[in-house]
Design goal:
CATH topology: Porin
CATH architecture: Beta Barrel
Strand order of the largest sheet: 1-2-3-4-5-6-7-8
Largest sheet: 8 strands, antiparallel, barrel
Helix content: 10-25%
Order of helices and strands: HEEEEEEEE
CATH class: Mainly Beta
Amino acid sequence: MNKRTTLLCVTLGLFPVAAFAQYGSTSNLGPAAGEREFTLSGTGSSDKDFDSSSFGMSADIGWYRSPELLLGIRQSLNFADIEGEDISNDFWNGSTRGYVNYHFGQTAWRPFVGASLGGVYGDGVNNSGFAGLEGGLKYYVMPKTFIMARAEYQWFFDDGGDVDDQFDKGAWAYTFGLGYNF
C-alpha cells in the first residue's frame, strides 16, 4: 500500500472512534444514584374514519435509588371523543399513581420492568383504584436524554378484595415519549 491509501484507511478507521468519543464511554450514559428523571409521553387512537378518537399524555417524575431502580409518580390525562349511531360524547379522565421500575444494562438501550398502584377518575370511568404491571425500553440518544416506549397492563378495583378478581378484566395502555435525567 502506498502512503496515501494507508492514511485514508487510518482516517476512515478513526471515524467510529471520533463518533463514539463525543459521548465518552457508555458509563456516562444514563442516570446515577440520587438523580431524578422527568418524562413526557403521549398516546392516541382513532377509528378508520376518525369519528371516534382518543388521545392522552403522561408526565412522570422519578428518583433513582441506584442506576437501575427508579421510584416515581405518574400523572396521566386522557380525552376521548366517541361517536356512534345513538351516542356522541366527550370523556375526560385522569389517573395518578406511584410506580417502581427496574432497568437492565448499562448501554444506550435500557429495557425495564415495573409495577404501579394508584387511582383513576373522571367522566366515563368508574372512580376506582388500579394496579399495573409495565415494561418498556429506553434508548439514550444523548448521555442524559432518552426516547421511551412503555406498555402497561392495568386492572381496576373498588376495594382490596377485588384486586385478584379483576385481573382478567384489565386494559392495556401504550405510551411513547421523551425523558431527561438530572
